[in-house]
Model the fold of this input.
Amino acid sequence: MHDFVVVGCGPAGSRFARRAAEAGHDVLAFEQGEVGEPLACSGHVSRDLWEYTGEGAREELLQHRIRGARFHVGGPDSDAHLFYKREAVSNVIDRVGLDRHLADLAREAGADLRENHTVTEVTEREDRVEVTVRAPDGTETHEARMVAGCDGPRSRVRDALDLPEPGEILHGVLGFDPDPDDGDYVDVHLTVPRFFAWRIPRADAGVEYGLAAPPGADVPDRFERLQSEYGVDLERRCSGAIPIGPPASVTGHRGLLVGDAAAQTKPFTGGGILYGMTAADHAARTVDPRDPATLSDYEDAWRTDLEREIRLGHWVRRAYSLPEPVQRAGLRVVSGEIGVHMDRPTSVFSTEHLRKLLSRS
Ligand SMILES: Cc1cc2nc3c(=O)[nH]c(=O)nc-3n(C[C@H](O)[C@H](O)[C@H](O)COP(=O)(O)OP(=O)(O)OC[C@H]3O[C@@H](n4cnc5c(N)ncnc54)[C@H](O)[C@@H]3O)c2cc1C
Done:
């Protein structure tokens, strides 16, 4: 019997598989397709990402450094309110490459990571879990002490363990213009109900345009409008789901959810790469597959670390729905040089940020 079966090898699954294997556990991990495919992510992350990668990753995966964001209450021709740092705030990376890199690290740590294996059923028993998998050679059943559901926003493991759904699931779309752009700033347009549209320069990898919104907000039409406002006609497009608002419980009797399956994302950007890997580390550190009682240690650990950030992130997102004149006035007041960490909204109260605010007056 394995210690852990991991379902899904995105950043959360591969990170958990790696850390659990390094802790000496027997880890079997399944990915339904090829790791990293299909792409449905901007790969815009804080520089903390490099704490989770191995040798040579930065040279291989970094596409561009970003110094800040221009916020617009309207389209590209509207006034821009710039938030910036003198050094890079964030990085734009090759997301498919990142997933492959993290999966390689998991394999090197000893996890048995199998691609083209789709988990179709998970059953919790008193002393184990049974996992049914559709593999290239037929159907297989595996037993483990615990299952880690790292299978993304529409998690099958979440359903199988009868765990609650995330607060909401947004629909995100993006597309690419191949023309290189090494601009310093991303553009954020508060023109979408309860979320935003964006433009991200990716240096030689071109420019990405995207938007996300709640279901029913007519995402395809809005995306067409964004393209026509920018005068681009994007060929390479993709879309995905963004879960916002973690459910009250992400652990079962012999299972746990990590990453998007647990909606461990930033409510004001939808970003989940760093939060998912942070939670994966908490899971690997706290959960003993032989002792189901340790699952509550995981709940405590990730919530202690991230819940306050997520709560404040919800407040930041509320500003996207304020009346336009209030948004404009607010942006005018708070824009300028910032000392905020993009994954940690609580850093708005940090000495670094307060010093920047004071230096403006
Ligand atoms: C349009 C868009 C833009 C985004 N931009 C950013 C961004 O710039 N920065 C950021 O941090 N985040 C961004 N995100 C969010 C980010 O993509 C997710 O938070 C992140 O991928 C979550 O990682 P994960 O490992 O939890 O889930 P996933 O990356 O979704 O990985 C889950 C894996 O499980 C596999 N799987 C699912 N079901 C099964 C099954 N039954 N059997 C086997 N395998 C299965 C899937 O194939 C997948 O590989 C964006 C999302 C969208 C939709």
About this structure: The chain has a mean pLDDT of 95.
